[in-house]
Amino acid sequence: MITIRGLGRWICLAIIAADVAWSAGPPPDVAPIQAPFAMPQLQRPVFPDRTIDIRDHGAVGDGRRLNTRAIARAILACSEAGGGRVLVPEGVWLSGAIHLQSNIELHLSAGAVLRFSTDPGDYLPPVFTRWAGFECWNYSPLIYARDCANIAITGTGKLDGQGNPWWAWSRQGQQAAMVRLMEMGRSGTPVEERVFGTSQGSMRPQFISPINCKDVLIEGISLNGGPFWTIQCIYCENVVIRNVTIDSFQNGPGPNNDGINLDSCLNALIEYCTFNTGDDCLALKSGLNEDGWRVGRPTENVVIRHCTMERGHGGVVIGSEMSGGVRNVYAHDCMMHGTDRGLRIKSTRGRGGVVEDIWYENIQMRNIAGEAITFNAFYSSWGAGGATDRPPLVRNIHIKDVTCEHAAVAIELTALPDRPFENITLENVSINSQRGMQATDVRKLLLRNCRINGTPLDKGGWGG
Question: What is the pTM for the complete model shown?
Fold first, then answer.
């Protein structure tokens, strides 16, 4: 048995070995998915052998001319021809909102930079979306698709969201607009009447956000400086996101710049991605309070593997918008080095919803500013609970082979007294931390070969 006091050298060797294994990038093909629950073997979508160059439709890559219409013409021409690849070649291409269509692969060549306008008018008219857990009509995401099948964003180029001008909204009109939207959700206002994207309602758009799409691929690209959440897949089925680099700090840390959010999605694989974000690196969501219950679509069947979280509020996070439920999640072989927290589930009274059948395995952490593992049913940010006091339910969580070289707090499990967490298993967990473990209102907590600062938890290693 390896205790935490002897783990330093072992962790370093393991990290070096993992870095060497991952430095060459992901394998060219999507490896078979092995999960502790049934889910399909996801593959890349296949497109017709056809390439449409945006330059042939009037695009100019000088970084100054707005190419929104030229790119739209290229996408339309490719779609009308039966689908294929829309090519963004080397150069700096300024654009407003880009709307994909079925059977379209938007491909960024090496040296291509797709730079997005900071003029809100370039993202109108409003489109249907889900914003922080509530359905509404808002500014178009920078790249958007609705009701599409077989779509992709690929290549080795970069997407530049120029986020700074948008970020001030989080301190200005967005707060009032968000409160108004939450009240609409609580009162059951019809979605078609929840119209934002106006001077009276200013909520930042997402960077990439397909909604109600099937067979979605995002691969190879780099993103920086989005206005809001970076990649938010909403109501999507069969999603593959691989070898994507998200850096929210290139132009300074942006507020609420989550890396990847799966929002009421079915069957998803996220692998070989790198996160350096101004909020959670990777979060699983399913709507907020009354609107989440109304829609009633969980996020389920998700595999997360071979990802690196370098900075962010949390590494792999569930919630806090989880009112539609989150189930069947397997996160394994990931590294979190410098995030505020590692594994996190967050919710609050009034959310309702069920988080269940979650597996974390072979997770390496170091230099975690807060808790290495934290499940908290008293989360207070990003909107209060609903009009009812419906409590969330968290159960059947399995944590195995997790190491952390340093954290402020090892483990914190805090449930509501009237809705305890159920069936939490920790096996082969070794953490070096300033504070130990606290568990409040947890039913059926099983600890097997777990140590904090070298002391077995069954021999006084709980340390407050």
Answer: 0.94
